Amino acid sequence: MAALAQGEDSDDNMDEFMEKFKTQKYKNAFSESNWEEEFDKVPMFMKTAPENIDPEKHPDLACIQSIIHDDHRTPEEKARSLKDEGNEYFKEKNYKKAIVSYTEGLKKNCMDIELNAIFYTNRAAAHFHLGNMRSALNDATAAKKLKPDHIKAIIRGAQCSMELCNYAGASQWCDEGLRLIPTDKKLQELRATADKQKREADRDARKVKIKAKKEQNEKEALLAAIKERGIKLLKTEPSRHRGSDSEDGDGDGGASRALADLELDGISSQEATGARVYMDEQGVLYWPVLFLYPEHSQTDFISAFCENSSFMDHLAVMFGEELPPWDSERKYQPQNLQLFFEDPEKGNLYQVDLEKSLLNVLQHQRCSVKAGTPSFIVLVSGSSFSKQFLSGKKVQRLK
């Protein structure tokens, strides 16, 4: 009877408690508008934990954190808690936070060598997934130093070496691991891949070396051919080429000095095509040549002008049956054209005989090739623009 009476009292109390909700609203209830926000404040349901935990805003989290990082626990206990924390972050693929946890664990300076080796190995794995191969390799090395038979650290070291294209280093890691576990399939696969990649890298290196040697020989032969012809080459920097030749430009000394410090890139065309002078199997040179038309602010570019061809050979094609659209007055007929090159030192103009070959003109003592591209000015003989352009300039005709 007493038990029945107590049950009835409990029912009465519950009825009384429930009756309150009819007249009095529960103050801490979640509303439809904020229930997700409130749920996110509960540690159990949090999607992400805040970076810095404020005890006033997050008392529950602060309490949990104080338990995890309890100052009264031993360094080993604290370190293990941080290892577990880092592992949870790692499982969530939050590798940056995992690295922070593992680093804090190492800072506890616990005396458990195996635990510290795990910290380094796990941190190496996190760095590996972030693409920080050098840091991952350093951690794998530190783990193996603490525990030489730590196979996970050895595998990670081999993987990092592979990613860093250090195939010899990867093979060394694999060999150390296979001495411990000769049947480890992962190490066997890595060893085989490292050997293959090393053979391919060595083969590619040999190809690059052979190609570089061939290009060097071609470069030396090309420069020797230019020097033999007595053609003067100028660098693009005025301070370098100004005064590099003798006053009259004659003789081999100035040209030799210019060639001595000239790189192959220095005689490549400045045009967008990147064309450069080259020598064919018969020893004939082909130059990129630029024609300038100052009256119309136009240019023409011939990527391979044979040194034995005359200027008229090209002009007859360029201004043959079909004249350029910018020549509205149809003045640029081959028989009407004049060609000039400029002396870079004195600024004088030299008129070129159109029947002369390119080689014949380039060998003139006042002609110099700048940036690997001979340049010539084209004017219409007797035109008003030509008279104005040449006025005040010293013009000489090539003999």
Automatic annotation (TrEMBL):
Belongs to the TTC4 family. GO terms for molecular function: actin binding; Hsp70 protein binding; Hsp90 protein binding. Residues 234-245 have a biased composition (Basic and acidic residues). Residues 187-225 form a coiled coil. The lineage of its organism: Eukaryota, Metazoa, Chordata, Craniata, Vertebrata. Residues 234-257 are annotated as: Disordered. This is Tetratricopeptide repeat protein 4-like. Keywords: Coiled coil, Repeat, TPR repeat. Residues 218-236 form the WH2 domain. Transmembrane segments: none annotated. One of its GO terms (cellular component) is cytosol. GO terms for biological process: protein folding. InterPro entries: Csn1/TTC4_wheel, TPR-like_helical_dom_sf, TPR_rpt, WH2_dom. CDD domains: CTWD_Cns1 (cd21380).
